[in-house]
Amino acid sequence: MFNGKFLTPCFKSKQPWKRLLSTQPSVVLAMSGGVDSSVSAALLKQQGYKVQGVYMRNWDSLDEVGHCTSKADWEDVQKVCSILDIECSQVDFVKEYWNNVFEKTLTDYAQGVTPNPDIGCNSFIKFGSLLDKIPEGTWFATGHYCRTNNGKLLRGLERNKDQSYYLSTVPEAALRRTLFPLGEIESKVKVKQLATDFGLLDIAKKKESMGICFVGQKRKFASFLQEYIDQPPGPVIDLDSGKVIGQHEGLYGYTIGQASRICHGSHKWFVADKLLDQNKLVCVAGSNHPALFSDTLVAKNWTWIHHQIPTLPVQVDAQVRYRQSPEKAILSQTPDGQYALRFTHPIRAIARGQQVVVWDQDWCLGGGVIDAVL
């Protein structure tokens, strides 16, 4: 029996997640209201599972300009589950999300680094608080594009949508309990076609969410952070000349490698560094300035997903961002226990706080938080 607090049970489920005496294997599916988790629900039911959908409520305040889509997404989850004739419930993780993900995100931005809250949400909420409430013997499932094999995390066949990067901190024990129904599907187009075939026409046409719920769909991230982080404006410095070329609105609102929105001369200026102790933003002219490239980084808080840790140093495929082609690099351990990666070719815009993730071909080994760029 699920031992968590539910906000809203749905349809015929008076006791959500209670395992029925049945020969059907049970699976609890994390549902978002989007096409990926909806098709996952249909596929699991088609494969003979007793599917129970759950929608996680992680945020509870309205956005000033747009709004968090949580209410509409929950309504879509209920519609999908009604069409598929499966049970669903909503569970509240607002407190857990605030304490374990949101506050850390704010702290990181205030300290001048660039975190990835999606990785934190998977680690602490979806594969943490949520999975902890699912009884042993019941499968867990998500709509991520990835695969597993004996606890190993593998890239999804749809390489353009592969999401193993976001699961690089999920431990092997959790992966052994998890199903990824979309892992073997080779294209997003096929997923949308399946949604139509399963009678989920509205979901098939639904626009894919690209933002973070607590920011809202129509709002700039920097303006959102301004409400929580008190940092004064300061000078913008041209790295090459050392001259002041403008003023920034708070260092938290800038990411290494991004266009700075600074108007000075005929150049387009890009962020090369943030000097927190001096409250200075350092920029360079042009998106391919040499200062934006580096071939070495050091990472902390490293997670090895599987117990088969490779002998170091070792050549791996590595990514410092989700939307990046894998690059060859040599992974080694530093004398103080951190991990260093030296890339074969310099990588653009490596930022402290980002997650670097490594693979052995399709096998995701794990990753860590970038602590230094050399």
TrEMBL record:
<dbReference type="InterPro" id="IPR023382">
    <property type="entry name" value="MnmA-like_central_sf"/>
</dbReference>
<dbReference type="GO" id="GO:0002143">
    <property type="term" value="P:tRNA wobble position uridine thiolation"/>
</dbReference>
<feature type="domain" description="tRNA-specific 2-thiouridylase MnmA-like C-terminal">
    <location>
        <begin position="294"/>
        <end position="370"/>
    </location>
</feature>
<dbReference type="InterPro" id="IPR046885">
    <property type="entry name" value="MnmA-like_C"/>
</dbReference>
<dbReference type="Pfam" id="PF03054">
    <property type="entry name" value="tRNA_Me_trans"/>
</dbReference>
<protein>
    <recommendedName>
        <fullName>tRNA-5-taurinomethyluridine 2-sulfurtransferase</fullName>
        <ecNumber>2.8.1.14</ecNumber>
    </recommendedName>
</protein>
<dbReference type="GO" id="GO:0000049">
    <property type="term" value="F:tRNA binding"/>
</dbReference>
<dbReference type="GO" id="GO:0016783">
    <property type="term" value="F:sulfurtransferase activity"/>
</dbReference>
<keyword id="KW-0808">Transferase</keyword>
<keyword id="KW-0067">ATP-binding</keyword>
<dbReference type="InterPro" id="IPR014729">
    <property type="entry name" value="Rossmann-like_a/b/a_fold"/>
</dbReference>
<dbReference type="InterPro" id="IPR046884">
    <property type="entry name" value="MnmA-like_central"/>
</dbReference>
<dbReference type="InterPro" id="IPR004506">
    <property type="entry name" value="MnmA-like"/>
</dbReference>
<feature type="domain" description="tRNA-specific 2-thiouridylase MnmA-like central">
    <location>
        <begin position="223"/>
        <end position="282"/>
    </location>
</feature>
<keyword id="KW-1015">Disulfide bond</keyword>
<keyword id="KW-0694">RNA-binding</keyword>
<keyword id="KW-0820">tRNA-binding</keyword>
<dbReference type="GO" id="GO:0005524">
    <property type="term" value="F:ATP binding"/>
</dbReference>
<dbReference type="Pfam" id="PF20258">
    <property type="entry name" value="tRNA_Me_trans_C"/>
</dbReference>
<dbReference type="GO" id="GO:0005739">
    <property type="term" value="C:mitochondrion"/>
</dbReference>
<keyword id="KW-0547">Nucleotide-binding</keyword>
<dbReference type="Pfam" id="PF20259">
    <property type="entry name" value="tRNA_Me_trans_M"/>
</dbReference>
<comment type="similarity">
    <text>Belongs to the MnmA/TRMU family.</text>
</comment>
<comment type="function">
    <text>Catalyzes the 2-thiolation of uridine at the wobble position (U34) of mitochondrial tRNA(Lys), tRNA(Glu) and tRNA(Gln). Required for the formation of 5-taurinomethyl-2-thiouridine (tm5s2U) of mitochondrial tRNA(Lys), tRNA(Glu), and tRNA(Gln) at the wobble position. ATP is required to activate the C2 atom of the wobble base.</text>
</comment>
<keyword id="KW-0819">tRNA processing</keyword>
